[in-house]
Amino acid sequence: MSVKLQIFEYNGSALVAMVGKNCFAIASDRRLGVQLQTVATDFQRIFKIHGKLFIGLSGLASDAQTLYQRLVFRHKLYELREERDMKPETFASLVSAILYEKRFGPYFIQPVIAGLGDEDKPFICTMDSIGAKELAKDFVVAGTASESLYGACESMFKPDMEAEELFETISQALLSSVDRDCLSGWGGHVYLVTPTEVTEKILKGRMD
Amino acid sequence: MESVFGLVGKDFAIVVADSSAVHSILVHKTNEDKIMLLDSHKIMGASGETGDRAQFTEYIQKNVALYQFRNGIPLTTAATANFTRGELATALRKNPYQVNIILAGYDKETGPSLYYIDYIASLHKLEKAAFGYGSYFALSMMDRHYRRDMTVEEAIELVDKCIVEIRSRLVVAPPNFVIKIVDKEGAREYAWRQSIKDGSVLEA
Fold it and tell me: Could you read off the pLDDT of A34-81 as tens digits, one per residue?
């Protein structure tokens, strides 16, 4: 079917990360589409860099896969040289630099980075496709459903939520937002990270 | 527009492709084989720009053979899929290949698998996949009738249902299809479904 090509909306995506009390949550939808057609309902958008650092990549799926491979490579090399994991702030700067390298031929993605930094202080940030960082203390969103996500998060978010409440809040914000966006949805994928454990949950929402 | 689709069964995978080679309003031939045998246990069905399709699939086939020569063991299906995606991704911003690929293989340790790789190098492992205008019909039929543990006979019945839909509902429907299968015994041509036979033309 011929639809005008909007490269950031080609595959469809929804990403959100939220800060809680000594914890964070990062969530994504599960749809992989080709414009109006749905190809898969189990697509992975959030990747683990190390035990306390996750990155979600929204936008063009192909560039998300390429960029993920490049970032894992860079982090593994860092780990070998420094003999420790990368801090989230450092990783965010690395992603920003890699994206700006392609300033005049960019990767068509918008990353959401979430991690626990020094003393397990939660860190979240997002950036645009050429690496302009946006730090936030509460939540960050990305993807085709970002406008709905901004509204849902702004109204549902409270500072210093405990892990269970944070999980409920981020899940409700994600599901209600993707229901208003035809290009994202088909369930949700939530990672809840505290200093001691990582919980991964699949959400069942409207499967359309 | 070319249709390619595939599905994974109990211990096999099937890839089906139409076999018309078309330029604008002219049908050059109706028995073009668009599913390449990469090695003994892998098949790659491709659709898209004719020259790119032929060149790219042959390139992948030769590289799969080279790996086996150099290393003495064959690539796994997953490795082949990732290699193919890498080649498409590298070429994407220089000289893109306009080829959509369905790669199916059988590995001794992991069984049958199917990979969807589109022309902008998005890779996803799936149980059923389809490309082209025929995908709108094939995917819907497969969504309705597919089960994970189908036998070969059941899968071929489903493939035939998809072909019937494509033939009856697509305005410029391709008349002929080729079906290839890969299982423990290896990769081979399973059948042709021809409603127009090229009597006087030699098989390419």
Answer: 999 999 999 999 999 999 999 999 999 999 999 999 999 999 999 999
Contact between chains at A62 and B122 (C-beta distance less than 8 A): yes
A150 closest CA partner among A13, A11, A16: A16
Which residues from chain A sit within 8 angstroms of residue B126, using beta carbons? 39-40
Backbone CA torsion sign across A62, A68, A71, A72: negative
pTM, entire model: 0.93
CA angle A34, B60, B36 (to 5 degrees): 80
Length of chain A in terms of residues written = 208
- The Cα of A7 is separated from the nearest Cα of chain B by a number of Å equal to 11
For B184-203, the pLDDT digits (tens) are 999 999 999 998 876 555 55
Environment class of A18 (CB within 10 Å of its CB; exposed 0-12, middle 13-18, buried 19+): buried
Q: Which of A181, A189, A171, A170 is nearest to A144 (CA)?
A: A181
Instruction: Report d(CA A11, CA B174) in Å as an integer.
Output: 28
Q: Interface pTM (ipTM) of the complex?
A: 0.91
Residue A16: its H or E element:
strand A14-19
